[in-house]
Structure formats: structure tokens, C-alpha cells
Write a structure and sequence with these properties.
Layout lengths: L5 E7 L3 E14 L2 E6 L5 E5 L2 E7 L4 E6 L2 E6 L2 E6 L2 E3 L5 H16 L4 H27 L1
Parallel strand pairs: 1-8
Antiparallel strand pairs: 1-2, 2-3, 2-5, 4-7, 5-6, 6-9, 7-8
Length: about 140
């Protein structure tokens, strides 16, 4: 028996990152990771920085880093909209580690609440990228 499928589009502010037919999607929703199969009930959720995983029809799993955003689920189509979305393979680990260090330093000597909030969100994103890399490496 063939697995039920659905279509997914992963889109960033700059471009479409991925579009394809998949059997499952796993995403870092605000309330925790959600798993979505075909014919999932309609849903709209904000996403935290983290990894969106898709399982293609052939069983191959692909991972994408998102900086947060919106997850929209319709019965046969899933859309992920994120300011930043990267194929996991495209994450630059040294840049992510550098960003983490910069953000931590900025949080220590912030001049205002706004600087602190911005540094904190940069730190969360950098840490999420590094965590995404660790997860992907474990699978290989």
C-alpha cells in the first residue's frame, strides 16, 4: 500500500528553499515539535528557531533550519514561511558559533533593553543552528 502524501513548500524571505511531495513533516512549533501526516487537520502555528524535517516518498529524510516563522497546514499542503530558511547542509558552523559568541558579548554589555532583546534573539537563532547541525551529524 502506498503511503499517503502531501505537498510542502518551505519558503524564506529571499526564495523558495524546498518544494516537494512528502509523507511526513516535523516542525518546531511554539508549543513543541509537531508531526504532520497527509490529511492532518488544518492548523496555523508560529515556529521557534530549529529544524524542519521532511520525509520524502522514497523514505529519505531532509532537514532544514528555520529562524522561526509560520507553519500552515491544510489537508494536502503544508507551508513553512520563515525569515531565514536554510538547507541543513548549507549551515556554516563557524559563522553560527561566531554569531553565538557575538550575541553573548552583546548581551553582557548591552546599552539598552532593545539591544539586549535583539542580542538575545540572535543568540537563540545561533544556538538553534548549532543544535540543528549536531542533530544532523548524529543521524549520519
Amino acid at each position: 500500500m502506498m503511503a499517503m502524501t502531501m505537498h510542502i513548500n518551505i519558503v524564506s524571505a529571499e526564495s523558495e528553499i524546498y518544494s516537494g511531495t512528502v509523507t511526513a513533516v516535523y516542525a518546531p512549533a511554539e508549543a513543541g515539535e509537531v508531526g504532520i501526516m497527509a490529511r492532518h487537520t488544518q492548523m496555523l502555528s508560529t515556529l521557534k528557531p530549529g529544524v524542519v524535517r521532511v520525509v520524502e516518498e522514497n523514505g529519505e529524510e531532509k532537514s532544514f533550519f528555520v529562524s522561526g516563522g509560520i507553519l500552515e497546514v491544510q489537508p494536502h499542503i503544508v507551508t513553512v514561511l520563515s525569515d531565514t530558511a536554510l538547507r541543513a547542509a548549507d549551515i556554516d558552523e563557524s559563522a553560527a558559533i561566531e554569531a553565538k559568541t557575538r550575541a553573548e558579548a552583546a548581551m553582557k554589555d548591552q546599552a539598552s533593553e532593545m539591544d539586549y532583546a535583539k542580542a538575545k534573539s540572535q543568540l537563540i537563532e545561533a544556538v538553534a543552528q548549532i543544535e540543528a547541525l549536531k542533530k544532523i551529524r548524529k543521524k549520519k
